Amino acid sequence: xxxxxxxxxxxCLNCGLQKICxxxxxxxxxxxxxxxxxxRKSPLKKNQHLYExxxxxxxxxxxxxGVIKLYSYSDHGEEIVHxxxxxxxxxxxxxxxxxxxxxxxxALDTTSICNLPFDExxxxxxxxxxxxxxxxxxxxxxxxxxxxxxxxxxxxxxDQRVAxxxxxxxxxxxxxxxxxxxxxxxxxxxxxxxxxxLTPETVSRIxxxxxxxxxxxxxxxxxxxxxxxxxxxxxxxxDCDICKEVG
Length: 247
Fold this sequence. Notes:
The chain has 247 residues and is α+β, with helices and mostly antiparallel strands. The protein has helices at residues 28-37, 118-127, 129-155, 158-175, 189-196, 200-212, 228-235; strands at residues 39-40, 49-51, 59-65, 68-73, 79-85, 90-91, 104-107, 112-117, 182-184, 216-219, 222-225. Residues 1-8 and 241-247 have low confidence and may be disordered.
């Protein structure tokens, strides 16, 4: 089983997630300036919140290790899952407009983050054009993720939703240089069901069917893809750029 290793105190220049996070395309001197404003705190424990709904917006956060779930509650108190974020992803933009975070961000496993104070980051981005471009790119990805999630709920049946979710997570690990046909995923089937608009029983039934057909197994946080082609066929994914998962 491939383990995702992390160096919690590594600088931006030495971080293995450079190609996913902000430093992409920046000069060494620019990366050093970015590194100066980054606040690296102790890792979050499982079920510890990074921020909560209504909290004053101050920073965006780059994930170095672990998994973050974004969620909120409906007017009727029902949980709504907005997404899952992996090493190299950036969260916190939901607080940018109203200066308060709209969602709750919770660690699903031991999670290390880089705190990027937004005022300092914005000021620095005015001095470093490539950094400003990186900010715009990350924000654009957030919009695309929302569109893809909406299309998933509207245009896919239950089997397709589950298959596409599994493949998208695998592809995101692949893009980070990690093993993608066998990996650890600290996300409960219940949370996947909420994200996909399904019941936990439906998700469990579909995963059991995929396992019986030797397509994919997801048990006790360990995902094993036995037949990538079949998984992608069920998900309705073709090998073309427009079908690839963002980030």
